[in-house]
């Protein structure tokens, strides 16, 4: 059995509380998020890089289970089949690296759907996840202001968005190919507890009633009173977790 990629980076355990999360005001100048938000987002035994690596490993584990005939299968993201979903994740990692290297939101969007998989989707994703982790682990990366398409944000907040994306798309991939779709409980809890903070100040968020739903699908259906934390989070992110069970 092929093992998961070992991401080679210095995990910054315990450092989250010392980092500054910020958004950028209409004047283009960075403004600190309220200290209460910074504190809440840091309230976890894992650091931001730990969570990203964990979410990436979860996606890779499902990716390695994709069989040759499944690449064209549909996913819960109706605009993407399995290959396009994996490309979205791979290209996304590379685009975040680009932002950390001074890239623009225009470049990010222009490359959003460009093929990044070639003939080796698994290897391409694994390499992109490692490159992304290493870029965010670089000195000063979490404080750097990035020209993110939904608004200029500090690297720390961008990394939280990326971790959320990887976690939710892990479920999409698992559901598409019929493998274990139970997400890491710690990641689910942290994201669900901090969802408003993760997307604070961005032009579109999955938690805003008046969002355009350009990037986030609207929640559908009604959850049972005893729904799991994972199902509650998935619904907030526009998924229908009970569908297909």
UniProtKB/TrEMBL annotation:
InterPro entries: CHP03086, DinB/YfiT-like, Maleyloyr_isom, MDMPI_metal-binding. Residues 57-174 form the Mycothiol-dependent maleylpyruvate isomerase metal-binding domain. Pfam families: MDMPI_N (PF11716). GO terms for molecular function: metal ion binding. This is Uncharacterized protein (TIGR03086 family). It comes from Actinoallomurus bryophytorum.
């Amino acid at each position: 059995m092929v093992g998961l990629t070992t991401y080679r980076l210095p995990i910054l355990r315990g450092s989250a509380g010392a980092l500054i999360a910020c958004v950028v005001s209409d004047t283009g100048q960075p403004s600190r998020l309220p200290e209460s938000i910074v504190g809440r987002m840091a309230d976890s035994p894992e650091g931001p890089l730990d969570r990203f690596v964990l979410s990436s490993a979860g996606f890779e584990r499902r990716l390695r289970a994709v069989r040759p005939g499944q690449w064209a299968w549909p996913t819960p993201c109706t605009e993407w089949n399995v290959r396009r979903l994996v490309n979205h994740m791979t290209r996304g990692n590379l685009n975040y690296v680009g932002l950390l290297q001074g890239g623009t939101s225009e470049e990010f969007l222009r490359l959003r759907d460009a093929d990044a998989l070639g003939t080796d989707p698994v290897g391409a994703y694994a390499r992109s996840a490692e490159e992304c982790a290493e870029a965010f682990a670089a000195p000063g990366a979490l404080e750097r202001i990035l020209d993110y398409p939904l608004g200029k944000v500090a690297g720390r907040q961008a990394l939280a968005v990326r971790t959320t994306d990887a976690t939710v798309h892990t479920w999409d991939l698992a559901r598409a190919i019929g493998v274990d779709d139970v997400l890491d409980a710690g990641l689910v809890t942290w994201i669900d507890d901090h969802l408003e903070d993760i997307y604070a100040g961005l032009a579109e968020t999955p938690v805003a009633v008046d969002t355009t739903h350009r990037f986030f699908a609207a929640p559908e259906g009604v959850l049972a009173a005893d729904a799991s934390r994972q199902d509650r989070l998935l619904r907030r992110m526009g998924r229908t977790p009970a569908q297909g069970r």
